[in-house]
């Protein structure tokens, strides 16, 4: 499939940008104040992230302006819009850990499965409230009739791994406290089915799904039951380029430069992409009590070869794992709202992906 003109323009723009050696930055969007930062750029992922001397990280979107809306935050709304309400919660005051909760509009008596979501971004960018996630996870909540809890993960390079994995694990433990009535949330306490809890994550969030599932495999989560794990296009790779990395087309959601730089910034210091977090292929898990998996892959993903290695390894170790393949699309295609709107195949594959996730949830 040839990319649409707008997407081609986007890819060309990203590859034609070059870092500046000196820069004056205007920022602090959270508090709507302005401060000036000067210094040498020591690393940059074009359009997404710039790292300066002294450790300051600027995540202001600098790519084509027509794509900026996808990274804009969506405020929570406690009333139902298109059948879904949202709320932001502080779940750990000590670590300042927050989550976003999506509640679908369903009959009062119905108990709902719970999805704990870990966002992607190479461990370095994105937030749970970005429009690209809001656009898809409202659909998943509505069509799966499931409550979605999306964790605001700490980001690298300020917080290298395993920080984001610890945040994901802490979210699961907090949900156990809700199930045990040690803490209360009006939506989850009244509507959540704690016997049907799923982990779901996009891209690097898929890595976190697998790590959290392994972490709790030998633990007693009662009264929670981990009913399934859904890694979507997980960032499984290794130091040596795979055949798909060399041959598949780069996309707006993943380039080789993004893959290399984000993982270099995100992994523990001194680690390579052969670290178990990013290279679990062939890792023995036969003795772990893992839940059923739905591994979602995209035919044109740069890293589909290593994702498929993971799939074969899980099957070899006797784990229950299903495969959902999206044809003619690349990494995290369903997060690209513009592609969904302009490309019929992206729209159709997004619909099939959401249906496949809903089916997996309904049957576990």
Automatic annotation (TrEMBL):
Organism annotation: Tagetes erecta
Similarity remark: Belongs to the 'GDXG' lipolytic enzyme family.
A Pfam family of this chain: Abhydrolase_3
Domain Alpha/beta hydrolase fold-3: 115-334
InterPro entries from the UniProt entry: AB_hydrolase_3, AB_hydrolase_fold, Carboxylest/Gibb_receptor
Protein name, per record: Alpha/beta hydrolase fold-3 domain-containing protein
Tree of life domain: Eukaryota
GO molecular-function term, one example from the UniProt record: hydrolase activity
């Amino acid at each position: 499939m040839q990319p649409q003109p707008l997407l081609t323009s986007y890819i060309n723009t990203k590859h034609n940008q070059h870092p500046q050696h000196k820069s004056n930055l205007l920022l602090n969007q959270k508090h709507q104040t302005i401060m000036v930062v000067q210094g040498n750029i020591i690393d940059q992922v074009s359009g997404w992230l710039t790292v300066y001397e002294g450790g300051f990280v600027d995540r202001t979107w600098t790519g084509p302006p027509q794509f900026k809306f996808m990274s804009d935050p969506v405020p929570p709304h406690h009333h139902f819009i298109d059948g879904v309400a949202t709320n932001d919660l502080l779940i750990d005051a000590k670590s300042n850990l927050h989550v976003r909760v999506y509640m679908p509009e369903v009959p009062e008596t119905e108990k709902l499965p719970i999805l704990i979501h870990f966002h992607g971004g190479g461990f370095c960018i994105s937030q749970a409230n970005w429009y690209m996630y809001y656009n898809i996870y409202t659909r998943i909540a509505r069509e799966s009739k499931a409550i979605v809890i999306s964790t605001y993960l700490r980001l690298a390079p300020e917080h290298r791994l395993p920080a984001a994995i610890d945040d994901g694990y802490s979210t699961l433990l907090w949900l156990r406290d809700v199930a045990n009535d040690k803490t209360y949330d009006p939506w989850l306490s009244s509507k959540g089915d704690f016997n049907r809890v799923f982990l779901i994550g996009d891209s690097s969030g898929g890595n976190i799904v697998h790590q959290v599932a392994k972490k709790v495999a030998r633990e007693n989560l009662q009264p929670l039951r981990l009913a399934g794990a859904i890694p979507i296009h997980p960032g499984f790779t290794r130091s040596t380029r795979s055949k798909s990395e060399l041959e598949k087309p780069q996309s707006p959601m993943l380039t080789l430069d993004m893959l290399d730089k984000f993982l270099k910034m995100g992994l523990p210091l001194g680690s390579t992409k052969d670290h178990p977090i990013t290279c679990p292929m062939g890792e023995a898990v036969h003795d772990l009590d893992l839940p059923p998996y739905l591994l979602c892959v995209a035919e044109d993903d740069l890293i589909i070869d290593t994702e498929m290695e993971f799939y074969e390894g899980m099957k070899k170790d006797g784990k229950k794992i299903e495969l959902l393949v999206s044809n003619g699309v690349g990494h995290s295609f369903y997060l690209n709202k513009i592609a969904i709107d302009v490309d019929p195949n992206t729209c159709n594959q997004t619909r099939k992906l959401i249906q496949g996730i809903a089916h997996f949830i309904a049957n576990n």
